[in-house]
# Entry
Amino acid sequence: MRWQLPIVWLISSVVTGTVAVLLSTDRADFPIKPLMYLSGPEALTLVVLVGVLVLALFALGWRTIEATWLRWQDPRSAILWTILVAGAGFLGWGFAAVVTFDVHFPFALQLILAYTCGGLPFTLVAGMLARPWQVNAAAAAVTVIAVLVGLTLIEAPLTTLVLYLEYFVGPAFRPL
# Structure
């Protein structure tokens, strides 16, 4: 069970790094492609990559569920673990991407970070669900520090986050 977190990091870093390559434009004014501008093959590749990540996380969660606090003896625990790790992991990954875009990290550095550190948000969520409680506390502390650092680096955090979300999702997203 000690390999659960490193495997989450590895799988999610490879997938999110590839997603970053797929969505990147290397332009300062538009660093990412909006979803509606993806070609058919690009959209299919994105769906397949996300599907592969979710399936890999489910398989890992199923095999290592005893390493978490969700230790029921049925598939629901692995499904819940997968939903939490994938869902919150993508939120954290998106937040980190916005920070790197807003701080104007060089394109090559963004891709290097996507492939090496893209799995960190997923791993932190898995760490918050892992046993023992010391792993939970460490994952929560690193998450709080990372979010605070990210919010500090962005000039207008809420406005910037909404702007990038609206740009990426397109007209489907309308903030209140």
Residues 4-170 form one domain. The first helix runs from residue 4 to 23. The chain has one domain: 4-170. Residues 40 and 46 are 10 Å apart (CA to CA).
